[in-house]
Amino acid sequence: MSDEPSERPSDSGEPDHTDDPSGSDEHGKNDGHIGPPDPSDNDTADPTSGTPADRANGDIPADSDGDDSDDPDELDGSDSPDDARDSITEGSLVRPLFHLAWPIVVIQLLQVTYNVVDTLYLGRLSAEAVGAISLAFPLIFLLIAVAGGFTTAGAILVAQYTGAEGDDSAGMVAGQTIVTVAVLSVFIGIGGYFYTRPALELLPSDPDTAATVIPLAADYMEIIFLGIPLMFGFFVFSALMRGYGDTRTPMAVMFVSVVLNVVLDPFLIFGFENNPLFEWLAAIPGVAALDPVAVEASLFAATGFTGYGIEGAALATIGARGVATAIGLWVLFATDLGPAVGIADLRPDFGFIEDIFRLGLPSSVEQTTSAMAMITLTAMIVTFSPPVVAAYGLGNRLISLVFLPAMGLGRAIDTMVGQNLGADRADRAARAVKIAATTGAGVMFLVAVIAVTFTEPIVSVFLGDVPDAPATIEFAVEYVRIRSVEFAFIGVSQVILGAFRGAGNTKTAMVISILTLWVGRVASVFYLALTWSVTIPLVDVTISALGWGPTGVWVGMALGNVLGAAVGVAWFARGTWTERYIDDPSPDVDPVGDD
Questions:
Q1: Acidic residues composition bias: which ranges (predicted)?
Q2: Contact (CB, 8 A) for 500 and 156
Q3: Separation CA 568–CA 549 (nearest Å)
């Protein structure tokens, strides 16, 4: 999971160290953290820098870092004064936003790599296997969403306490988050293991889908649920480090885990019979001389191992996640990185636990209702033929790659908003959100152009010469092209939701997400894609669905983020999010907040 050594000094030290991973402060702490400047350096700092307390006392103007027009440093990302150059709460806005966001994008890219690698190999197994993992994910997400909300709460509180220079409180809340999520993950894993097969069997489905896809999805999910505690170990570690301002360490840990998954997947899925890895190796000129296909035949003759099919993909994922969790625990307990967590911080503290629940419950509801929306959408999708189901799953996995830039900015902005509100810098937090939203919309527009231009060759990579492949590719191409219309809106909506979460307004984020998914997507797909009609007796009016079939699914899916972006921007403009959640960063006072 995620916790920290208690010996870490209270401040992050020299900002120059963010550019030099080997740099350490006077206490010997490796400074991978982008955080508040050390107030002890004020005698040599630029006169416009200082601590939040200095501003509160009137010693330094509240807008000393300038607004968008007066401070080119915030716009072009150039170096600000030495003591605040990479600080989240001082100096340039673009620079720390970039430094936080790019490792998050890489982490999410690596996260998606788990799914893409599974899809790549399972696509060589069968189209039904690809459809199975597309059905599995929403039900898995439903149960892990409960604990995910508390992970979000921990990141919010760590960010605000770090910005307020209440590092002891940041460490305590991190420890409480670890314990809370650890306990929940055990119960979720046990419940999910026994719940998954009956839940899948309740889905209304096409007869072919029920006979071929759903049993495979159940096999996959049962193994995943048994490993849920190992999966959540890394999620908590990553979230708490992000709240603190260190996104590079989780990125490095994630890279190791993904490499292991890439190595394990082909062998656990196929074993040494018809393993596509050996075929691909044989196509490499330098490797072909070793005759990889003959090596595979020899290994099969010696072991008779034919792999575990879709269950092998689940085993590879759990094994790789377990390694990530082990490394994360080692980093947190044996190194001085992140919020200062010690063993004592794992003892229950009900003041902090109350705050975690107050922030975490709306986030859990948000994620749970999101999962329920996905399940509802899946229930509608499985009424179509297997090629449509497979195209829906394949398209979603490709679009998850498209989400990466927007997701990176959204998660970076929740740290920037959290730390700046913790430092009483609401003006700076607002400017950061505007810069991130504009950047997100622009980047996602370019991604949409690429997606529309190269859809078919990209989709074709993930399906081999298997039954229904041509039909699946045709549906998936249409799906991705239609959904590309919403990509710029995704960039805006992810940033706005991140801003609300960073401010501790998790209820607001919850409401916007519910509108996005249930009104924008579920209702739209129900009306556009299915065939139904209902008559209202009192007024003798008949309402009929449009019945566009698969095209209606794709259009309905695209409408969600358009609605979410519009509502989010309007709500954000009201300015009701600018109060920080924490009241007192003092380490010896129980935190009291108001959502």
A1: 62-81
A2: no
A3: 30
Q: Which residue has the tokens 């993950």?
A: 185
Contact 381, 138 (CB under 8 A): no
**What's the half-sphere exposure (Cβ side, CA atoms, 13 Å) at 558?**
21
CA 536 centroid distance within chain = 43
| pLDDT, tens digit (0-9, with 9 covering 90-100), for 305-324 | 988 999 999 999 999 999 99
Question: Measuring CA to CA, which residue among 427, 423, 425 is closest to residue 162?
Answer: 423
Tell me the angle at which helices 127-163 and 228-244 cross, rounded to the nearest 10 degrees.
Answer: 40
pLDDT of residue 183: 87
Of 35, 74, 87, the C-alpha closest to 436 is: 74
The pTM assigned to this predicted structure is 0.71
Which pair of structure tokens corresponds to residue 516?
């996005």
Alpha helices, H only, 164-247 = 167-201, 207-226, 228-244
CA-closest candidate to residue 313, choices 137, 131, 118, 113? 118
**544 phi/psi in degrees, rounded to 5:** -120, 140
CA distance 213 to 393: 12
Q: Work out whether the CA dihedral 89, 93, 97, 100 comes out positive or negative.
A: negative
Q: Hey, is 525 helix, strand or coil?
A: helix
The residue extents of the domains of the chain are 94-271+307-573
- Confidence (pLDDT) at 466: 64
pLDDT < 70: residue spans in the chain: 1-86, 138, 166-167, 464-466, 584-595
- Residue 212: both structure tokens together: 């071929």
Q: How far is CA 246 from CA 268, 428, 580, in A?
A: 34, 20, 21
Q: CB–CB of 394/23 below 8 Å?
A: no
